[in-house]
Amino acid sequence: MSRPAVVVCFFEDIAQEKFITTLVQRAAQQVRISIRIEVRNAIRGSHVWNELQDYLRDLRSRVEPLPDVLVVVIDGNCKKASQVRREIQSRVRQLVLPLPQECVVCAIPDPHIERWYLEDQQAFSQAIPNAQARKLRYKCERDRYKMALYEAILASGVEPLLGGAEYGNDIASRLDPQRLDRSFQKFWGELVRAFRALNVSGE
After folding, report:
1. Which region holds residue 118: left if phi is over 0, alpha if psi is between -120 and 50, else beta?
2. Which of 21, 86, 166, 198 is the most buried (most CB within 10 A)?
3. What's the rounded Cα separation, in Å, for the pair 172 and 117?
4. Residue 171 in 3-state DSSP?
5. What are 87-102's pLDDT values in tens digits?
6. Mind listing the pLDDT tens digit for each residue in 115-131?
7. Is the pTM of this model over 0.90?
8. Quick one: which of 25, 27, 181, 166 has its CA closest to 115?
């Protein structure tokens, strides 16, 4: 591919954006492909499904230009990650987007993005010296991981004004993908495969 591949990332919130954009860049570097990231944020996280539907319709009608890769990030929110993934894929299929299936990548943090922030304790402590991260056993409980992230950073003597999102880039740049949970592994595998498919098609 002679030009940078356009990767559109659709997020619910800033915590997802800070973390995932860095991982998208890392995956592109691993595959040795040049990319340009464009961000689309849901204005109201609680209405993310409606806003995703509107964005997909804009893609179909070419109000928005079609990307080379579309990355959709929606927290599992105590549903099965596979169920949320199927819902995203179903909406893409219904609108018949002219985008290959392998170029639609789903990131479904299970149950919330803050769990991914905390999973690799070594990366976490490197990004935030003296922070006290602990790997939490999975539990579907509202704000469990948000509070754990906030408290881990607070222990370093710093109050995270964005709840920890301000460290998303630093943590994501250091983490070992093999240390994260199954929902992350699924996302990472899809992302790398999407970039490899672009790399091959561009040769």
Report:
1. alpha
2. 198
3. 8
4. helix
5. 999 999 988 888 888 9
6. 999 999 999 999 999 99
7. yes
8. 181
